[in-house]
């Protein structure tokens, strides 16, 4: 198997979006094959991979999950190993996540672990969501591949390399996509009284949506409703017959997510009546909160505090979304932030993690998984 940095750079050049990770899957399978042992059992699920590594004296099945998909973002890093797929980029660090997982494979190939390890190379984390259907497949068709505990990490640009940041309980928020389509009647810009202008309607709806968190959510709770994209009209002298709003919802409780969706639905119905138009809502993909089991999160923090070159940090919860939450909804385990030390945030076209995180995080995770006994 190649060195970690070289593999990360290879993967960085072939970003693919959810359930289209064909080159990525091929690369990962080839890397695993290079170090495959008699106690390895490899199978594919859609564009993902499930690798079972039988333990020498197993009492537990311990899972490690990595996401493998990329984003539809045009890269602006100017790196010599920048994306070769125009309009797509590993801007959320999944190339690093995969590299860490391959590092674990190599480590467990050199020395068989005591416990059984199952590594999940999961597609479609960004969209439309791969964790929920992968877990459903495992439970229904391959229950022997469902772990007793499961862990994962996500790179964190804001933390120094060597930081392991996590907390018991809520780590990442509940999330939902939001798409609202408005349909009215177009016409000549000089005769607006004969039209139903969806640019004006959409603009008013955006303002109304921004009252939900400030006036309907408990101030001691947290919520976000962001409209990141608005499109309407076709040319400057035609009143827009259609408009579309695209956004995201984030909450720290499932109850607040339900409330926000109820309020959006009511505001859209009221908009239909007030402006004599049609409004439809598509909730897109929704991810369950990442809620770390207390024992598992504390075990990560405790082990991190004992490892030289690693800094344990009990962090605050974040409004970030991650479909790993579906695993933790069903199974005990935890996720942590791995410091990546870059001034550019996740989903930024210039985001470039400090590659020193690769060996440090791989060694930390391998050591942690080898010694973890469920407490």
How are the secondary structure elements laid out?
Layout: H1 4-12, H2 22-35, E1 40-45, E2 48-53, E3 61-67, H3 94-110, E4 116-122, H4 131-141, E5 149-156, E6 163-166, E7 169-172, E8 174-183, E9 187-188, H5 198-209, H6 211-216, E10 223-232, E11 238-239, E12 242-251, H7 254-275, E13 278-282, E14 286-287, E15 290-292, H8 294-306, E16 311-314, H9 325-330, E17 333-339, H10 357-371
Parallel strand pairs: 3-4, 3-5, 5-17, 6-16
Antiparallel strand pairs: 1-2, 2-4, 6-17, 7-15, 8-12, 8-13, 8-14, 9-11, 10-12
Helix pairs in contact: 1-3, 2-3, 3-10, 5-7
What does this protein look like?
The protein is of the alpha+beta class and 375 residues long. The chain has helices at residues 4-12, 22-35, 94-110, 131-141, 198-209, 211-216, 254-275, 294-306, 325-330, 357-371; strands at 40-45, 48-53, 61-67, 116-122, 149-156, 163-166, 169-172, 174-183, 187-188, 223-232, 238-239, 242-251, 278-282, 286-287, 290-292, 311-314, 333-339. The strands form 4 sheets. Strands 1-2-4-3-5-17-6-16 form an 8-stranded mixed beta sheet, covered by helices on one side. Strands 8, 10, 12, 13 and 14 form a 5-stranded antiparallel beta sheet that branches. Strands 7-15 form a two-stranded antiparallel ribbon. It has 10 helices and 17 strands.
